[in-house]
Design goal:
Elements (H helix, E strand, L loop, with lengths): L2 E6 L12 H10 L3 E6 L4 E5 L5 H16 L5 E5 H9 L9 E6 L5 H9 L6 E5 L2 E5 L11 H8 L3 E5 H9 L2
Antiparallel strand pairs: 1-3, 1-4, 2-3, 5-7, 5-8, 6-7
Helix pairs in contact: 3-6
């Protein structure tokens, strides 16, 4: 049975758009997903299902969350293999201050070129398929290339995770 991870954008931040992980797990199980495990409160889950189409899974999860909690949530789906590929594709020499922005789809080459041309100081970024690898020597808290910034420039839905979280999600499989 295929294994997937879902990454939810913008839940449980500052007391807004609250989804307790126990309720998220129950919602997934009620939707027919099995072996559901969650990691921290930011909406990371791994599960198995007979569904093979990630877009169908995304729509299922987004619509069930909206029906249950009353708000729209961006959900990004990756297979276990895709997440492992992320770990193996890190273009930076270290993992210090490395984050990955997961994109719903590949951005247009023109929009990516425009983003890369911006002066972002010491921040580094590399696009690999539907992921942007980011390195923030001054820390994520001071980063110009925040998740919202990436979404606004590329016109693509996205969510960002730090390197440690990505490793922990993979360990749940």
């Amino acid at each position: 049975m295929p294994a997937f991870a879902s990454l939810l954008r913008g839940i449980n931040v500052g007391g807004n758009r609250k989804i307790p992980m126990a309720e998220l797990k129950a919602l997934y199980e009620e939707s027919g997903l099995t072996n559901v495990k969650t990691y921290i409160q930011s909406g990371n889950a791994v599960f198995q299902t007979d569904h093979e189409n990630p877009d169908d899974l995304r729509k299922l999860i987004e619509s069930t969350i909206e029906a249950r909690f009353g708000f729209d949530v961006t959900v990004l789906i990756r297979t276990a293999e895709e997440l492992q590929g992320v770990l193996e594709s890190n273009p930076f020499e270290t993992v210090d201050e490395v984050y990955v922005t997961f994109l719903a789809e590949e951005p247009s080459p023109e929009k990516w070129a425009h983003l890369k041309a911006l002066d972002l100081g010491t921040e580094r970024s590399e696009l690999r398929n539907k992921e942007i690898f980011l390195q923030f020597p001054d820390g994520y808290g001071k980063a110009k290339m925040s998740n919202s910034f990436v979404e606004s420039k590329l016109k693509v839905r996205a969510t960002t995770r730090n390197w440690r979280t990505i490793n922990e999600i993979i360990n749940l499989f």
